[in-house]
Amino acid sequence: MKKLFPLLLAIIASSLLAAGWSWAGGGRDYIYIVGSSTVYPFATVVAEEFGRTTRFKTPKIESTGSGGGFKLFSAGPGIDTPDITDASRRIKKSELERCRKNGVGGVVEIKIGYDGIVVANAQKAPRLKLSRKILFLALARNVPSPDGGEHLVPNPYRRWHDIDPGLPDFHIRVLGPPPTSGTRDAFAELVMMAGAESFPWLKSLQHQDKHKFKEIAESLREDGAYIEAGENDNLIVQKLATDMTALGIFGFSYLDQNSDRIQGALIDGVEPSFENIASGRYPVSRPLFFYVKKVHVETIPGLGEYITEFLSDKACGEEGYLADRGLIPMPAAELARYRKTAAELEPELKLQDLE
Amino acid sequence: MITTIFGGLLLAAAAAYITGRGKARRLSDQEKLHSRPVYHGAWTGLAGLLPALLLVCTWMAVEGPVVMRLTAAGLPESIGRMGPAATGLFFNDVRNLLTGAVGPGQVRPEAVAAAAAWRHYLRLGRSLLAGFAALAMAAGWGFAICRIKPSFPARDRVERIIRVILFLAAGVAVLTTVGILFSVLFEALHFFAKVPFSDFLFGLKWSPQTAIRSDQVGSSGAFGMIPVFAGTMLIAGIAMLVAVPLGLLSAIYLAEYARPRVRTVIKPLLEILAGIPTVVYGFFAALTVAPMIRDLGASLGLDVASESALATGLVMGIMIIPFISSLADDVISAVPRSLREGSLGLGATRSETIRRVVIPAALPGIVSGILLAVSRAVGETMIVVMAAGLSANLTANPLKAVTTVTVQIVTLLVGDQEFDSPKTLAAFALGLVLFVITLALNVIALQVVKKYREQYD
Amino acid sequence: MNQNSRPQTVSTAAIVAAGLRKRYRAEKRFRRLGIGAVILSLGFLLLLFGNILSQGLPAFRQTEIALEIEFTPRLITADPARGNYRALARQALQRAFPKVRKRRAKKELYRLLSNGAAFELRRMVLADPALVGTDRRCWLPADDLVDNFLKNPESGKKRLSPRQLAWLSQLHNQGRLALRFNRFFFTRGDSRDPEMAGILGALCGSIFTLLVTLALSFPLGIASALYLEEFAGRNAFADFLEVNINNLAAVPSIIFGLLGLAVFINLFGLPRSAPLVGGLALSLMTMPTIIIAGRAALKAVPPSIREAALGIGASKVQTVFHHVLPLALPGMLTGTIIGMARALGETAPLLMIGMVAFIVDIPRSLSAPATVLPVQIYLWADSPERAFVAKTSAAIIVLLAFLILMNAGAVVLRKKFERKW
Questions:
Q1: I need a surface site. Which of B68, B395, C234, C326 has the fewest CB within 10 A?
Q2: Domains and their CATH numbers in chain C
Q3: Pairwise CB contact (< 8 Å): B278 & C345
Q4: Which residues in chain A are contacts of B418 at CB distance < 8 A?
């Protein structure tokens, strides 16, 4: 034992030394990506392909939600900040302004394809036929009075049945994304706004007081009918598969990957399928983007190559591996345009582009 | 190079030790020494090593920034004007060049030049360091050697150094507590500057996902912790309902009834339950137990949520069984034989003895064990993160989904890391609550044992 | 008198006898309750292990398809590192089923193979450039849907098309479809494709993290234990330290994550997701455990040893380091191993410091982004692909194997050096 002790101490001292030594080493030589959980499956597949087939390291990707991603992205340039943020909606003016303010410099916007937002439930449960109006009535915090009057009441609906007798007699329970998520923003815009507009008096309000209208349309219930399920869409899928009465809101790819367990509700009579989203018939679809810091491209090894890989035919094309995972590819002309943007890192995104 | 310096210093210290010991031995031939020669040797070695080591460690801590400053000073104007962030990116190039992660052809020529400068300053700095360290070593060594004489209390000196090192090590525990208090309390105070303390403590609504931009509509941002706290208590309560009877009865059986052979087999088996990582329990709860309970409920016509408090609490209870059983086993075994024998001698059966004599005698220990178990249940994270709900329902129905303090901390902090909104800061306020609760439970548990423990000796 | 008292004694005896039966019944009931509790607890253990083993064991085998690969130089190009290996694999599939011509059908055919097949071919060519230009039969990993079908034919059938099923049965009849040992599981990092995902990355992350934890918590823990037990004496500061350490041992682990996030990352600017920071946070968490175990080991050394040493003129420090510490060291090491086992299974604090990212590369240094085994389990448990459930269970089996190994080590150590005074 007496001999063992100094030996142990020596081992520990040397490992400590090694610790200090390795930490004193170099800078960041891998790509750092944050952002949308909708883009996450696509970004990680590209990252893996990239890491395995090039001499560069595999990028590190954290799923933070589009809003959370922009927040980290716009914190400034520098090696502690992400090089790329993925987004399931376009960058907002306020976010680009924050980039400007923090000296991020040139930001290049690249579209990678399209995605539908689906409202899904368990395969074993009856398939729902919804409309944007029904979803608005089910999820808004305050809704137009059921008696037809032109005033708002706190959402009285408890069951789907109460909104439309054709729907099943389930409690309204919808698992959806929190405000850090781009899916939430897109859902608010594409479903809740459209649903609210289906009431003529609300639509006329929109012209008078845009802000007020937005608040009415986009405020979601907080009485337990709408459940903010965090950034993890996989978790929602798992909960749905085991819970017959719950609904979930997420990107099409998650439905596509789990089509044996969950099914997408028809919205305005259209089924969420690859073809319907690609053709634009399905009403709730949005483009997916990523944003690159121009100054990082020359510093972080492999950043330019990663972008090229993402937009290559074998990834992003009609037959690419991303399409296999549920990304709806862009038309060829659009793809060519974004390829050019990626190659030249021009044009930079300007504030007036976001008007 | 640092490794070389370290190695050199250690070798020099060994040499100093040998010379010191040698001189002392020679002296000991003529006269009786205060301390044995090894202590003189150790003192000589330490006198050289400690100052040199201090020098090396200080340099290692400041090396990066100093070399960077020096390199930056020699750069062309244009780089200096780019602002701190761009300079940071520039130096990322430089560092990647140095480690070979990128080749010289792939970066700006300034970066290649800067890398050369960096290498130069690094080498210069370390050569200077080596020189000064050697100087310090030699000075300490020489000083100590000169002072070696028969009456010199070398052992006392060496022992004092050892005591100081041990004391400093014990101080790390205090530093940890201070660190926890500092980090949690500090951010929690930021939070209370934005959300009133009473709103947080007594509010009945928890809806922290506020808008993250001014042009977005998020939830209203209610930060009342009562529903979160109630959910935690509901799940912990269910866990205790499972763990206390099972753990206690197992402990009684093992301590009072089981033959020693059976005991030596079963006790470690039960303790395996305590060694299983909580993430495994979480997986088990989310994928096996929760669907099982939901299906069971459905067949009875009950509406069970897929992340019911019941499933989570049940699995957490299983995790805590061995915790209670081993603590209870210890206190039951500590009850002296004479009490049992007295009771049995009066004609009581074994179960009567256990219920009326042993358990009352062991009660303070059992109660304190249960309190510690509650504190474990409250602070448990992975099971609830994987199997409990996210929405804060204020309910006592175990079939509903509730959320807990730890779940909220994890959801609030994974993703958004900017400490500027009440949303992220709320996680620290919850952390403070958690810390205070577990601390209180722990202190009460210790007090119970101290106050009510019977002394049998 | 005699006649009077006699029936009375009989009745007392009867009452006692009747009560006795009841009391014995209660005794039996109580005993059964105890046995029941033990059996129920062990039943849970059995259920848990059975569940995980039954789910996880299939993941150690992986479906592979044998294909005649023609290593066409045209596709591999001059730089083998950048060749189009996906096309190579597809070409081989096409050769195996020459009748498949339609675009949609081809797409379905290609989906039988994993994305990893191309990586595997690339690895083979890079390892042996002489392969270029030759023909060879290679076993390549199949897609997770095919894998699932082979393992659970009933439920797996639903996600494959009739055409794919026909191809698979044809492959099967030719002996080109088989379940083989899953070598990828132990040699690769994480992947989005369940059939290619491995635990080596997480394992290395765990080892690095534990190294830091051990390097910090072991010397500090032992030194603190020595100070508190042998040198501190009875004063207010020592009492404060003792209370402090006991409380730290009871602090929920997630709080240490908050500490790591606020202090190590935000204040000191250490890198996120790095084993260095994970190890620092975990060592603070493990230290109280080691201190408490260390003190118990020191307490177990009988005072007579100390008194004897002091009696023949040893100083306090000499007594402790020459006599007490060597006797207490086995106990301390046992405590350390148990603390390390706890650290190995810990997840919550690591979530706070960003070790939850998707990381494919095997970490090579303490500051490289990494994840650890339990976090990998957490990540996989949340993945939508069904095949990850099996991978999760398999990773759990590996983790439990390590824990059992460590604990067995601790038990052996205790048995070997344990002394009764």
A1: C234
A2: 59-182 (no CATH), 200-417 (1.10.3720.10)
A3: yes
A4: 71-72, 75
In a domain, A5, yes or no: no
Q: The domain spanning residue B431 has which CATH number?
A: 1.10.3720.10
Over residues B11-34, the pLDDT tens digits come to 898 899 899 889 888 888 888 888
Last residue of a domain, one of A234, A259, A285: A285
The more confident residue out of A227 and C50 is: C50
Taking residue B175's Cβ as centre, other Cβ atoms within 10 Å add up to 12
Q: Is B101 on the interface with C (CB under 8 A)?
A: no
Q: Which of A20, A224, A295 sits opposite B393 (nearest CB)?
A: A224
Residue A140 DSSP class:
B
A23 found inside a domain: no
Q: What is the pLDDT of residue A40?
A: 86
User: Which of A78, A180, A230 is facing B390, going by the closest CB pair?
Assistant: A230
Judge contact between C361 and A57, C-beta under 8 A.
yes
Rounded Cα–Cα distance for residues C238 and B183 (Å): 25
Distance CA A215, CA C356 (A): 35
Task: Examine the domain organization and report whether A240 and A140 are in the same domain.
Answer: yes
What is the CB neighbour count within 10 angstroms for residue A117? 29
Its ipTM equals: 0.89
**Which pLDDT score is estimated for C102?**
80
Percent of chain C with pLDDT over 90: 34
Together in a domain, A209 and A131 = yes
Q: Tell me, yes or no, whether A133 and A225 share the same domain.
A: yes
pLDDT at B278 over 90: yes
What was the pLDDT predicted at A22?
45
In the stretch 142-171 of chain B, residues with CB closer than 8 A to chain C read 155, 158-159, 162-163, 165-167, 169-170
- Distance between CA atoms of C21 and C32, rounded to whole angstroms? 16
Question: Where among A236, A257, A285 does a domain terminate?
Answer: A285
Task: Number of helices (H) and strands (E) in chain A: give both, helices first.
Answer: 18, 13
Q: Do A306 and A201 sit in the same domain of this protein? A: no
Residues of chain C with pLDDT under 70: 1-10, 384, 420-421
